[in-house]
Amino acid sequence: MGVLKDLRETGEMIKFQHTIFALPFALIALVSAPAEGWPPLRVWLLVLLAMVAARTAAMAFNRLVDHRLDALNPRTADRSLPGGRLSRRFVWLVTLVASTLFVLAAGLLNSLCLLLALPTLGVLLGYSLTKRFTAAAHLWLGAALGIAPIGAWIAVSGRLDLAPVVLGVSVMLWVAGFDIIYSLQDEAFDRSTGLHSIPATLGALRALNLARILHILSLAGFAAFAVLSGGGTLRWSAVVAAAAMLGWQHTLVTPDDLSRVNAAFFTANGILAVAMGVLFIGARALGRG
Fold it and tell me: How far apart are CA 175 and CA 9, in angstroms?
């Protein structure tokens, strides 16, 4: 019972449901990469393992680094570590096991994936330190998620091309934009503790305006990737769905009303990622747009 309880608590600690943001884009890259037919099941499973392991390592390490700050912030004080439901020793073990599984999965995919595994892990774990020294932490987080489609493309093709870089940068801009919106909740706390964030640096109104700019740029990137991957009705429908979800989330939050931040953060962006994933995979399955 104790082990099961720890595993359930670990799932809550790493917010496993938030895998929905990066996984669809990894799958988009997986089916869009040049290959004869569909990628073999082995590649799908190893990419999935790498994705889950990488995110688990990154989130567990983030909770370790932010343990003291989470305890001070009323919004996060009941998280697993400050709440005393998991020990630091156990979370360190989760971080090390997940990191090892990520490197192992990368090595089983191909030599380029293995070569890039440790630098990628450095980016993923390094994010946890960024708010201590730069307001660009949101872009760093975006880059961490943007690596997913690039890695999935390399897993299939064994090489790096322009298309996955365009998709990865688009994901980076998209994530940075919605992370700015989410971090509006901690604007006062970040200022009081000397942490760096766009809302703490620019204020809520200008932060929201910057998030809009980042989302417009991300949408342009999604459109460019649709062209590079073959175009067609379904891929362009994915871009339209992304535009609708980006527009909707920016109607949900104002500088004076953060009551719908969770809908803007999780619901709108979750729908965006799933819709794009389904439509791009559908385009590949039908052999047309």
Answer: 25
Q: CA nearest 19: which of 243, 213, 266?
A: 266
Structural domain boundaries in the chain: 2-286
C-alpha span between 156 and 39 (Å, rounded) = 7
Cα separation, 281 vs 27, in Å, equals 8
Q: Which residue type, as a one-letter code, is found at position 32?
A: S
Helical axes 2-13 vs 41-65, angle rounded to 10°? 90
Nearest to 21 by CA among 181, 146, 165: 146
**Surface-to-core class of residue 75, CB atoms within 10 Å of its CB (0-12 exposed, 13-18 middle, 19+ buried):** exposed
Phi and psi at residue 34, to the nearest 5°: -65, 125
Tokens in use for 38? Answer: 């569909």
Angle between helices 137-157 and 23-32 (to 10 degrees): 30
> Do residues 113 and 151 lie in contact, with contact meaning Cβ atoms separated by under 8 Å?
yes
Question: For 39-81, what is each residue's pLDDT tens digit?
Answer: 999 999 999 999 999 999 999 999 999 999 889 898 888 888 8
**What pLDDT, in 10s, does the model give residues 170-209?**
999 999 999 999 999 999 999 999 999 999 999 999 999 9
> Do the Cβ atoms of 243 and 268 come closer than 8 Å?
no
Distance CA 32, CA 39 (A): 10
Question: Mapping DSSP to helix (H, G, I), strand (E, B) and coil, where does residue 2 land?
Answer: helix
CA angle 60, 264, 133 (to 5 degrees): 45
**Complete DSSP assignment for 129-151:** HHTTT-TTHHHHHHHHHHHHHHH
Alpha carbon 140 to chain centroid, angstroms? 10
Instruction: Quote the CATH superfamily of domain 2-286.
Output: UbiA prenyltransferase (1.10.357.140)
pLDDT digits (tens, 9 = 90+) for 76-120: 888 888 888 888 999 999 999 999 999 999 999 999 999 999 999
**Structure tokens that stand for 147 in this block:** 């690596």
